[in-house]
Design brief:
- There is one protein chain.
- By secondary structure, the protein is an alpha+beta fold.
- It folds into two domains: 72 residues, Glutaredoxin (3-Layer(aba) Sandwich), CATH 3.40.30; 112 residues, Glutathione S-transferase Yfyf (Class Pi), Chain A, domain 2 (Up-down Bundle), CATH 1.20.1050.
- The chain contains eight helices and four strands, in the order βαβαββαααααα.
- A hairpin with a 2-residue loop joins strand 3 and strand 4.
- Helix 1 runs parallel beside helix 3, helix 4 packs antiparallel against helix 5 and helix 4 packs parallel to helix 6.
- It binds glutathione.
């Protein structure tokens, strides 16, 4: 099974981390965004969106990071996919929340606070402040959820933790106000102690 990624990608990082955490036999295939590998016909045949992560397993393909997480977790017996209707509901809730609510806020903050800085481009203050304000509202929800808890669903690690934690991959460089949300900071520290998470830390630029 091949897992297509880009070393800087926070979306691919969570898939790489889960595969390593579970010991799923995947071949990591790095793409060069600079060389536009992700828009080549050969890759578009795997993911027509031209994005990472994506998996090719013989003639089966799956893309969208959270779907990739589910496919990887289902490769071996484990309890990361939940064990009850209530856990399945909450795992899906947090994975959907990450994709639909958190990601659209995190990406512009990365761009304004990190990627532009690295390239010597001035941040757009209006976009940056709007994203930061929206992020604070979402972090408050996450912080309240994690009050007295180390994981998002139940009392153990699930794919929901991987799904949401991926968006914090560039949190420090993108200046997320994490110190204001101690439960989120504590939860993230816990995820960061996983060897698979540490091993998939993207190269630190800027
Ligand atoms: N909703 C997608 C987003 C994937 C995504 O945007 N990946 C980025 C890297 S973090 C990418 O491949 N960008 C290239 C592009 O969109 O052209 C997912 O969760 O997998």
């Amino acid at each position: 099974m091949e897992l297509y990624h880009w070393p800087m990608s926070h979306n691919a990082r969570k898939a790489r981390a889960l595969a390593r955490h579970l010991g799923v036999a995947v071949q990591e295939v790095p793409l060069s965004m600079q060389d536009k590998d992700h828009k080549a016909d050969s890759f578009l045949a795997i993911n027509p969106m031209g994005q990472v992560p994506a998996i090719k397993d013989d003639d089966y393909t799956v893309w969208e990071a959270n779907a990739v997480l589910i496919y990887l977790a289902a490769q071996s017996p484990n309890d990361l996919l939940g064990q009850s209707a209530q856990e399945w509901g909450h795992i899906t809730q947090w994975m959907t929340w990450q994709s639909v609510e958190l990601s659209p806020v995190v990406v512009p903050l990365h761009v304004e606070n990190h990627f532009k800085r690295v390239r010597g481009i001035d941040a757009d203050a209006v976009k940056r402040d709007a994203a930061k304000q929206k992020l604070r509202a979402l972090l408050k929800i996450l912080d309240d959820t994690l009050d007295g808890k180390d994981h998002l669903v139940g009392d153990r690690l699930t794919v929901a933790d991987f799904a949401v934690a991926g968006d914090f991959t560039h949190a420090r460089n993108a200046h997320f106000p994490l110190s204001e949300y101690p439960n989120v900071a504590r939860w993230l520290k816990g995820i960061e102690t996983l060897p698979a998470w540490a091993d998939t830390t993207p190269p630190q630029i800027g």
